[in-house]
Each structure stands twice: as C-alpha cells, then as structure tokens.
Amino acid sequence: MLFGAHHEWGKLREVVIGISPAEDFVVFYEESQRWLVPPGDAFSRQHAGRRLIDVDPERAHRIERQVEALAELVAREGVTVHRPQRLEGEERTFLAGNGEGAQLFPRDGMIVIGNHVIDASIRLKCRQRERYGLRPIIQQVVQQRGARWSSVPLGSPGCVDGPFLEGGDTLLNGYEVYVGISGCASDLAGADWLQALLGDAYRVIPVAMRSNVLHLDCVLALIKPGLLVWCPEKLIDGLPRSLRDWDAIAVSRDEANLLATNALVLEEGRAIVDAGNARVIEELRKRRIDVIPLPFDGPISTGGGLRCAVLR
Predict the structure, then answer these.
(1) From CA 312, how far away is CA 293, in angstroms rounded?
(2) Which DSSP symbol is given to 259?
(3) Which CATH class is domain 14-311?
C-alpha cells in the first residue's frame, strides 16, 4: 500500500489515534497556554502536575471512553487504526516540566505531507516526549512503505525560540500547505524549515491568527474542495487567498472555543463532528455532507478535538 497524505479530505485508509488511559492523564500548564479559556485555565493552573483521575475522575474516564469510541467508529469504517505505544520509565518523565502532558493528540507530534513523515517540534515542553510513543509506528512505515522521515530541530530549552512546527497548525490543500502562526505553537522559523524540506514543488503559506489561538485547526477546517468551516474573528488577515472563493461556513468565537472547526474528514463528503456542535452539523448537512455526530466534549475540554486525536 502506498504511503502519503495530500489533502484534508483524502479517503482515510490508515491512521494513528491517541490514547488516554484514565490513570495516565496528568494536568499540565505552561506559560504559552494562552489559548485556555475559563474555567479550563484556572483548573490547569491549580492542578498542574496532578493526575486528572485524582482531581476529576469522572472527566478522566469520560475522556478515555470518548477516545475509545472514536477508535472503534473509525475501525468500523474500514480504516486501519494504530495506537501510540504507552510511555514508561524515563520516556514518561523526560522534560516533565509542570505536568506530564498526555498521548491524546498524536496529530501535533507527527506531521505527514506527501510521503514525508515529520517529527514535530512542539512548543509545550511537557509534550515533546510524545514522539517516543509514535516512533515504532513511524519506523514501520519508513521500513515497509518507503516514507521519508525528518525531524524539525528542537526549539530553545525554554521553548521561547523556535523553530516550532505542530501538526494542528498544518493543513493540506494539495501543493499548498497552510501553517498557523499565533505564538502559542508553530512559528515562522518552523514554516521556513518546512518550505526548505518540501522544496519548490510546494508552497508553504503562514496564516496569522490571534495570539490566544492554539492551532490552525481550531479556526479552520477544509471539508472538501470548495467547502470550509472557519472563525473570522480569530484570523488576523482572513482566509488564505486561494480559499477566499470557497463556500465558507462561519462560526462564532464561542463555537470555535468548542472546536466547531475541528472535524475528522473520513473522505470527501463524509466527516465525524463533535455532537455538541449542532449548528455546524446542520450547516454541513445542508451542503450534502454525510455527518456522523460523536460526543467528544471530554477531550475538547483539554484543548483538542477530533482532528487533533487522529494522525492521518
């Protein structure tokens, strides 16, 4: 089977879906987490470094159940599902900082563009260890499928100076690749590194976002050719030029905070959307998108949605 990804709406055949054993999730907080909104910001500050199951066991188990339900649903769609290797020992405590992070969102730690598989450079120190749980999967596709493996140079020890490049900021539209820039995650140095890696065949386009936005997929989703969902209030210069004539479903700031733009596209015309975003589901169905609603409020409460939880 060939390896690669070229569009956000390409038919899913093989994915990595995150894991979140209830007893593993540790609350984390670092200064770059400007994207947190009440009451999540106060909760993260207060409980950083503690296991979520000790603070809010119902929430910890809800996250685990909803992620497993996503994995089961995707597998029923005929997609091969891989899961990260659970971190143990020194891998789990490496760069622990203020909290141990999670393995819930593999989208951010690895990026697939064409036949490139890229070790990302994550700004949050406590999330940089996530690569270790993904590497056995990456090594397999390199050895068996001919993927090209690269690593973004790590940023400064204080996670202030990049390059930073995260999968949640990276959206594919053929040979155009959009990279969100807000100061919370990816930066211009990361976008420049990606352009150099991909070469002249690709055009890497930075997209300026408000300074309290975590990732580009928190404000923009490419559902199929000519159809997108976006939050105008959170993009500084509007949509990239090549997307401005698309049918655009606009969402409010509050809807974006509930990750209304963070859908998982199974193939052109079919998508999984958080069941709590009823208006967006209705708008997509008006446009003949086959929407599968799935409750995902548990992971969303930690800052990541359906797209974040799946590395395609």
Answers:
(1) 20
(2) T
(3) alpha beta
